[in-house]
Amino acid sequence: MRVEVFTLFPEVFEPYLSLSIMARARQKGLLEVRLHNIRDWATDRHKTVDDEPYGGGGGMVMKPEPIFAAVEAVLGRPPQVPVILLTPQGRPFTQEVAWELAQQPHLALIAGRYEGVDERVRQHLVTDEISIGDYVLTGGELPALVVLDAVTRLLPGVLGDPDAPRKDSFSDGLLEHPHYTRPAVFRGWKVPEVLLSGHHAEIARWRRREALRRTWERRPDLLARASLTEEDRAFLAQLEAARRASESDPSAAASSPTPEEPAA
Ligand code: ADE
């Protein structure tokens, strides 16, 4: 995949893209990132890229000309690839959107700065707008890196275990189960027995249940859209029943099946 990044701060990207999995993906030729400094397309003596908003008010707005010139110089007019603006007003970035972008052979990311970009960039150049969350950053550089990172690890051949991305949190609509590694006992805290048993079916069942439990506890909103089996639903019903029992009679919580291990 090739990604064209348009930014006023290309130097922000290089260190992160030179580390670990991002670096390996680039070395293997699976990811090519080209950084373009929007300021290089400013035409006046001062290389101006922003200006005051029409209508007054505080803050500065990124001018349309250098952004159009940069994107069209690199990608043609009109660009034949998705042109994505990182902005808090965009559609929310999710694992599903990461999978969608990972199918593209070529795309462009525009990292805005200041109070925003001239609306004509949105209307006549950009084909998609993405937000990484409901908070406002000082620029789109970190969001662009977030998108690049999440997408890169989905590209075929990037991760050692080709099935790894499918097991991630969110990929089946659930948060991931807990992970443990050696030692089996640390400061008296034991790794759950089932994980040491070598019994693969039992381990898979435990992991599924813990993923369900974790999602139910932390992100119940995800359960509504997750694909669940009858067994999953039965387990969730047990969790609900245990919660109701402990709410109506807190002293019963100790004697009823604990939230840690509801009766099978
Ligand atoms: N630029 C500033 N804040 C942002 C956000 N939350 N997502 C994407 N781009 C942004």
What features would you highlight for this structure?
alpha/beta; 264 residues; Alpha/beta knot; binds adenine; 11 helices; Trp Operon Repressor, Chain A; five-stranded parallel sheet; 10 strands; 2 domains; three-stranded mixed sheet
Structure explained in plain terms:
With 264 residues, the protein is an alpha/beta fold. The protein folds into two domains: 151 residues, 3-Layer(aba) Sandwich (Alpha/beta knot); 71 residues, Trp Operon Repressor, Chain A. The strands form three sheets. Strands 2-1-6-5-8 form a five-stranded parallel beta sheet, with helices on both faces. A three-stranded mixed beta sheet has the order 3-4-7. Strand 5, helix 4 and strand 6 form a beta-alpha-beta unit. Helix 9 packs across helix 11. It is elongated, with a radius of gyration of 24 Å. Bound molecules: adenine. Adenine binds next to strand 5.
